[in-house]
Amino acid sequence: MLPRRSVTTIRTSSTASIGSKITGNILMIGERLRQAFHNNKPAIVRDRRQLLRQYTQCFTGREAVDWMVTNRDIIDRGLAVKLLRILQRNNVLHHVSDQSYLFKDDNALYRFRLDDCTFPMSREKEPYIKGEQLYARLTSQLTKNTILKVHTESGTVYEKSFYGSELVQWVVKHGLAASRAQAIGLGKELVECDIIRHVTTGHHFKDERVLYQFHPNIAHLKVMDLFDLDERPRSLNQDSPMSLRRHSEVSPRHSPIRTPNSIDIALGPLTLEPTSYSGDENKNIRKSSPGSSDSSSPLPPRVRKISTGSRSMSPVRTRGISSDEEYMVKNTIKITGDSVGFGFVVRGEGPSYVHTVDPAGPAAAAGLKAKQYITAVNSVDVVHKKHQELAHIILENPYYITLDVVDHNPLPKTEEEDED
User: Fold this and answer.
1) Is residue 216 scored above 60 in pLDDT?
2) What's CA 178's distance to the chain center, in Å?
3) In percent, how much of the chain has pLDDT > 90?
4) Parallel, antiparallel, or unpaired: how do β-strands 373-377 and 400-408 relate?
């Protein structure tokens, strides 16, 4: 029997920036909501008359909240209001007067900006909106002769896949592009924004018999993701810690320990006070005594102390970490990110290492552990990278990463240490 696959497990970096991807996902959720409002029976978006004036293609705040509570299992009306305000801040919807009225759960009238042509479309945003429209039409139960089918390539079965030439023809036929050239350009933009991808990530978009799929996260985007997306930073600052997963009243997460020199990879603001490591993890890394210097440290020559804030760890030198010595246990870990990131923190000045792991996150599920040194990301050597540089490399791959890690087992004690 042939192995069945719906998605690939390793991806290449897309050219879209972190900020544009976050904004793009918000826009895709907004477009999905707009289509749902239009397709509702009876339609929520319709022409209305208020205060002797006619307003086209609009809806009331109360109806929008009613729909979300009924159809999206949002039990709290205040929560629905907060979600819709996130869409309002991102120019998905607005008050019909086009003034800065904050969205409310009342009879005030609102519109989607795509419905009245006031949306500030740009080259960075357009692929996400068209990608959502394309995905919705191709996956709709009403769509006949969809191009999404099961294909076999190199002995592997890919579900809901399509050929590039089929997509070009379908896009032109259904009016999403005026010509094949425009359709090819749209296909390339969808690949660059990681909305569609070659099944083995081996090709850019081509108007040929080359097989593609929609990114698996597209199907799982939901309105509640707006909280996590809205709290993510749209850019990274080398001089300040970044946080791509935050706590909120809606979806509290376990909070790892944080120190000033750590970088969060999809973890939130951390509230626990720094404490010492405990348990079996202490067996992996030998620590210097507080206040000791490199010259007086009893550690063997190949080990040096690196100060990283309120706690210190004694990583090996880059020469040793790349070697095949017995006390180095190497492993490769593949992590599939969820809608809010990977769930671990890195520290170090090269080599960098895993400081903490969110026990409820994807990294923990994949087997990543604290105190493992990261030597490569997607086969790219990062042994000499500081934690800020490493964080940028990891976040260029927001959905899938492959990490080469090293466990530093305890070294045999020296005679001098035995005497102590």
Assistant:
1) yes
2) 32
3) 39
4) antiparallel
